[in-house]
Design a protein that fits this description.
Elements lengths: L1 H4 L5 E5 L2 E8 L11 E9 L1 H12 L5 E8 L2 H12 L3 E8 L5 E8 L5 E6 L20 E7 L3 H4 L8 H11 L3 E6 L7 H5 L8 E5 H8 L10 H13 L5 E6 L2 E6 L4 E5 L14 H14 L4 H16 L11 H11 L5
Parallel strand pairs: 1-4, 1-8, 2-6, 4-5, 8-9, 9-10, 10-11
Antiparallel strand pairs: 2-3, 6-7, 11-12, 12-13
Helix pairs in contact: 2-9, 7-8, 9-10, 10-11
Amino acid sequence: MPGIANKRKGIIAAGNWIIDRIKVIDIYPNEDSLANIKEESFGNGGSPYNILKNLAKLGALFPLKGIGLVGDDIFGSQIIKDCSKYGIDSKMLKTIPQVSTSYTEVMTVESSGRRTYFHQRGANAFLDIKHFDFSTASEKIFHLGYLLLLDALDRIHEDGTSGASRVLKTASNSGLKTSVDLVSEDSDRFDKVILPSLPYIHYLFLNEFEASRFVGINLTGDKPEYAALNRAATNILNKGVREWVFIHFPKGVFAKSKYGEILQQSSINLPNEKVKGAAGAGDALASGILYAIHEEWKISDALRLGVCSAASCLMELGCSEGVLSYKECLNLEDTFDYGQF
């Protein structure tokens, strides 16, 4: 019922709450060899943490709520305090004892901005169906990420459902639009883990690597071929996604709807000297798109904000440090213009 849905406000985000320990290195070394650490910092990481903090920085005037688990340690306390600072409701972000807060060592190569992750799953591994309650939810969108990195929710039950599919089904039945992001796992688990959730997902975000793994279509390179992107998005939609699939890659984003609408948007053409790191760029893109969807912008404008938000992220080292207000993000298109798709 559109009239009721339009009265809902807010975004709930759940999944991986992570502290990123970011290190800029001169080279990515071969085994048994050495790389030099040129710069390092600590910051937010994980889909819900990044998304909600980015939304706050974009200027969201609607409620922001987090769901997840952290450890009873200094990193867990840091996450809770950061949520308070940015106006994120953390009442459903629970602290559990005798388990560490999840963290990731992010190795970013100075010359290219490419990053490699070494991850400690920590408290996130225990996030399960029992930690979700949508019975009184009045928000508009529920975002879950990252599938393939949430041990309990990724588990497949005897009836073929997963914990994530059950959570997403409940959220959808409660009147929430659902959004999901994946992690770039180098495995053959994509079909097994993700398929049960697709019928309950309105908006699916994935990069070219994840889309390639999921549907077996080669999307390698900074700018995958249009025909390959279209085949991949169509394949994923046919597997059950309800509204939109967003496939993003360094040069832009390709979007296709269940009804066959196709949109493409090139990335902002940032000079190399402006790029400090690519950590969090995918989440920044998703944040911009979700902000615009919540505010009922056209999808074409949502994609513009998405790539502009991603560009602002690239200009600082951490996942959210560079993210600007949505107006300032959109000003980047006048400063730098768009690249070639």
